[in-house]
């Protein structure tokens, strides 16, 4: 089976944006790369049926795959009291000052986190976010409102964005 027409060009052009979405959802570069690879493999299987702009379709696959991964009971991680030695400096080391935001975002429920990522990090409109998630615009609005209210009440951040 050959590579579907236009798939390679799509992957080359859209991967950085899609990887950013996956990273914002998972908050881990390795998991984000796995999520993107899995989602692109799923898109490849149905590529011939994709109509119009494929990026929203693949973004929806990413969000749905992310949600199913976290429904599993076993996540291949074993808690330990002793942390392993770090392999090297992470690519995110430059943004340590924003760790409080990642933590606050991580405390949101998955649906609210997905809406915040799509609306504010990916800069999608309410209608685009609703289409990507397969929900109504009203659901996007209510989930956004709930997420922002929850972030406002988070005691680890202040209006100035400084950790308390």
Describe this structure in words.
The protein has about 160 residues and is mostly helical. Helix content is about 60%, strand content about 0%. The chain contains seven helices and no strands. It has helices spanning about 5-25, 30-45, 55-70, 100-105, 110-120, 125-135, 135-155. Helix 2 packs across helix 3 (about 55-70). The mean pLDDT is about 80.
Brief descriptors of the model:
mainly alpha, 61% helix, 164 residues, 0% strand
Number of H/I helices: 7
Secondary structure class reads mainly alpha
The biggest beta sheet is recorded as:
none
Strand content: under 5%
Following the backbone from N to C, one meets helices and strands in this order, namely HHHHHHH
User: What portion of residues is helical?
Assistant: 55-70%
Instruction: Give the beta-strand count.
Output: 0
Mean pLDDT: 82
Radius of gyration: 17 Å
Low-pLDDT parts are: none
Distance between the termini: 56 Å
Overall form: globular
Topology of this structure?
Blueprint lengths: L6 H20 L2 H17 L8 H18 L27 H8 L3 H12 L4 H8 L3 H17 L11
Helix pairs in contact: 1-2, 1-3, 2-3, 3-6, 5-6, 5-7, 6-7
Question: How is this structure best summarized?
Answer:
The chain has 164 residues and is mainly α. The protein is 61% helix and 0% strand.
């Amino acid at each position: 089976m050959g590579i579907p027409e236009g798939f390679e060009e799509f992957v080359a052009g859209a991967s950085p944006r899609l990887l950013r979405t996956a990273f914002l959802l998972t908050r881990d570069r390795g998991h984000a790369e796995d999520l993107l690879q899995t989602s692109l493999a799923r898109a490849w299987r149905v590529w011939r049926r994709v109509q119009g702009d494929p990026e929203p379709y693949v973004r929806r696959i990413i969000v749905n795959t992310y949600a199913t991964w976290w429904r599993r009971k076993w996540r291949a991680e074993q808690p330990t009291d002793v942390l392993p030695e770090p392999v090297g400096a992470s690519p995110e080391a430059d943004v340590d000052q924003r760790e409080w935001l990642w933590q606050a975002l991580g405390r949101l429920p998955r649906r609210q986190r997905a809406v915040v990522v799509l609306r504010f990090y990916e800069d999608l409109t309410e209608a685009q976010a609703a289409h990507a998630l397969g929900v109504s615009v009203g659901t996007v609005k209510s989930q956004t409102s709930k997420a922002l209210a929850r972030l406002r009440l988070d005691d680890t951040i202040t209006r100035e964005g400084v950790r308390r």
